[in-house]
Amino acid sequence: xxxxxxxxxxxxxxxxxxxxxxxxxxxxxxxxxxxxxxxxxxxxxxxxxxxxxxxxxxxxxxxxxxxxxxxxxxxxxxxxxxxxxxxxxxxxxxxxxxxxxxxxxxxxxxxxxxxxxxxxxxxxxxxxxxxxxxxxxxxxxxxxxxxxxxxxxxxxxxxxxxxxxxxxxxxxxxxxxxxxxxxxxxxxxxxxxxxxxxxxxxxxxxxxxxxxxxxxxxxxxxxxxxxxxxxxxxxxxxxxxxxxxxxxxxxxxxxxxxxxxxxxxxxxxxxxxxxxxxxxxxxxxxxxxxxxxxxxxxxxxxxxxxxxxxxxxxxxxxxxxxxxxxxxxxxxxxxxxxxxxxxxxxxxxxxxxxxxxxxxxxxxxxxxxxxxxxxxxxxxxxxxxxxxxxxxxxxxxxxxxxxxxxxxxxxxxxxxxxxx
Length: 420
Ligand code: CA
Hints:
Largest sheet: 8 strands, mixed
Helix content: 10-25%
Bound molecules: calcium ion
Number of helices: 10
Strand content: 25-35%
CATH class of the largest domain: Alpha Beta
Mean pLDDT: 97
């Protein structure tokens, strides 16, 4: 399939993130107005709340778009997701007789504020990229013991915090925490000195599962509504001291930044690719009924305060060992119910080469090999650095992009308990 041409000219520009093939879902506001649902097309957002009010699109008996989240629309299920996508595609395509109905409801992206696109019920973070697990494991335990014995059998994860998920553009404050240097006898309480990013893709759960009833991988794939870019900010020095035996806790709870647009599974369908060859056979409940990953080119850039942006890593989502559908199926094996609005982090997406590593700890090899940026070097994030993730699936003459997932790190509070 090639570019679907739209009467919105900026949607046809080669390399644009939001051609008609994409139609990602976001929440926007204009001035003092209430946030509501829209889709991105070219340089615009199409106001779906307005289209719903005029009965131009009407997916439900009650309003689902005049809300500051996509959850109620997601609850309507995949048949409705497909119907609305077909209707919007038809109305936005070049030569559509319905163009006149929409023109007043397009707002330039440059003039709107973007918000979190959905209410995040819960957030689970996985550790499912093999290159990342090998790199981190080698640094922590040596190359021989890099992969834990369960890694090739279980998509390893931990239950994270939904409360600190923020939208792109939000500032992230450097956290304080307990830190113990390897040669120190006791920990200190101090601002993190090894603050880091993790380049991930987040899967958005759009349909629930029943308490007590595991789902299959095929069912899990059907439950996923779409994907966001996700930066799982990580304080490595806090993590190294706290993580055994129950895994990361405060080191990952400061903030998780997501892109403002949910790219739907429907938009990514042409880019499906298989998971890599299995090194150990997976138990039947985790086996792949069909290709479950996507060919999505990803990059990370770093911009120092007042400086120029440097792309520091390029990788691809197809490097993952486990897909989101396998993670979601595994998540329900205990009978744990999944809800609309659950967010699953893929785990850091590193590639096999040095310049394809999805965290600064890997890029600088634990701070031992600082890497070059415009005008200097870095090992970890410094104050007032802006880190930006970008991603897109590249089709024949078009790109299905996610928009920027960006966050600036501001200095730690001088006194964390002051109430100023
Ligand atoms: Ca993570």
